[in-house]
Amino acid sequence: MSSLHTSPSPDRRWLILVVVSTAQLIVVINAVVLNVALPSAQADLHISDSARQWVLTSYTLVFGGLLLLGGRLGDLFGRKRVFLIGLIGFSLASALGGVAPTTWVLLVARALQGVFGALLAPAVLSLISLTFPEGKDRARAFGVFAAITTSGSALGLLLGGVLTDYLNWRWALLISIPLALVPIVGALLYIHDDTVTDRTAHLDVPGAVLATAGLAVLVYGFPLAQDRGWTDAGTLSAFAVGVLLITAFAFLQTRRRDPLLPLRILTERNRLGAYTSAGLGLLSLYGVSLFLTFYLQTVKGYSPALTGVGFLPLVVAQALGAAGLGAWLMARIRPRTIMAGGYLGAGVSVLLLVLLDADTPYTPVLLIAQIGIGLGLGAALMPATSLASYNVRSEDAGVASAMINISQQVGGSIGTALLNTIASTATAGYLVAHHTAARQTALVHGYHTAYIWAAGSLFAAALVSFLLVNLPRPRGVSTLAPVTTKEKAV
């Protein structure tokens, strides 16, 4: 195992943080940037209603399914190298999506974004962990990182709306190309080649195939349930095959010498609590963001740009919740208290959305709900992100970092599919029961049903955090235990 270069100067450490956080922001933005632009893209490319959700989930699903492989590649071949390959590949995939002439080209481009994003995201967290191995700067670094990335979803909605209105929906993808130039140049200038672990290790390609296929089939079951019903044989078969493939993946990990996911990563209760709660939190956020987009555009008649502006309170609140509230609390109280309280606050705020109907004004309900969701999730995800690499071996740093992204992306994919199915089913049921009901009223009823489920997901995240995260209250400077590694710099 080779050693790293000498520790970077304080100024260069913060430049590295800006570089890698900007790259992560691009990844997060692309998970939702087409949400607001989706109605325009659907009309332009004649995308069917059943295929519409795959424009969103083809990215998040491939991304989540391959993150473990991306994390392991970073561990084996160097994080800077994998970071740059992922970033450049992501830019090229974005360009393909931006000029896509057909639905299938767009779906392929989104899937390729997921592939390269899976290389990029684990390298980002590993680089931060190794650049800030301990002390108060580590807490500050993760606070800045959490603020940038947790606001990325809402910022993506804002960008998608403004670009769609003033240019066209294709720029929602093309914008990633100029954005990527900053971290590409920054990585070449400021990030040194980092440690490469054991190059004799073998990549667990069968494991990657099983994990990705299992998640894809599982998510595919939700639109089937929407079209055919929950008890249809095809729906049940999709869920059964998905669970079977994921079970086979878990079994394979116990038999391989170089597993894609060493199960020891999941046996530490604090990391497990962080992964699980983050997945449940993003399951709610992705679904709520999607329904608020359609509520504002379809029900309220907002333009895409105005819809994006309407999400600004969520953007600002998430940033303040992570870098401000979350970082401040981490110096004073136990991580599980921050996480459980944040998820509970966000869950109550989601329940406020049930008060919305077709003629409800933007203020005060929607404004207050967005602020509560942003502050709660921002504060909760800040310690959860830092816990992702808590007390891991150096050779597992990439995979451990990948797990927090996996939990969020898989949670987002399942949330989009599950909550969309729940809302659509509730809308259809309402129209059948109320023959004279206006479609807008039925849509709002469907959204209400989905909001209740989304709030339940956040309450479950709070419970998981309270039961599993047991680190003590910090003494003096806030810092979670660093990665167990000799690698002290990048």
Summarize the entry for a quick read.
The protein is an all-alpha fold.
Characteristics of this structure?
mainly alpha, Growth Hormone, Chain: A, globular, disordered N terminus
Secondary-structure blueprint:
Blueprint: H1 10-45, H2 49-77, H3 79-98, H4 103-131, H5 136-150, H6 152-166, H7 171-174, H8 176-190, H9 205-228, H10 233-253, H11 269-299, H12 304-310, H13 312-330, H14 335-352, H15 365-387, H16 397-433, H17 439-468
Helix pairs in contact: 1-2, 1-4, 1-5, 1-6, 1-8, 2-3, 2-4, 2-9, 2-16, 3-4, 3-8, 4-16, 5-13, 5-15, 6-12, 6-13, 9-10, 9-16, 11-15, 11-16, 11-17, 13-15, 14-15, 14-17, 16-17
The percentage helix is over 70%
Mean pLDDT: 81
Strand content: under 5%
Protein structure class: mainly alpha
Give me the CATH fold name of the largest domain.
Growth Hormone, Chain: A
Largest sheet: none
Q: How many DSSP helices?
A: 17
- Spans of at least 5 consecutive residues whose pLDDT stays below 50 are 1-6, 476-490
Instruction: Write out the CATH superfamily name of the largest domain.
Output: MFS general substrate transporter like domains
Can you write the helix and strand succession as a string?
HHHHHHHHHHHHHHHHH
Shape: globular
How many structurally independent domains?
2
Number of E strands: 0
CATH architecture of the largest domain: Up-down Bundle
CATH uppermost class of the largest domain: Mainly Alpha
Termini, distance in Å?
A: 15 Å
Q: What gyration radius follows from the Cα positions, in whole Å?
A: 21 Å
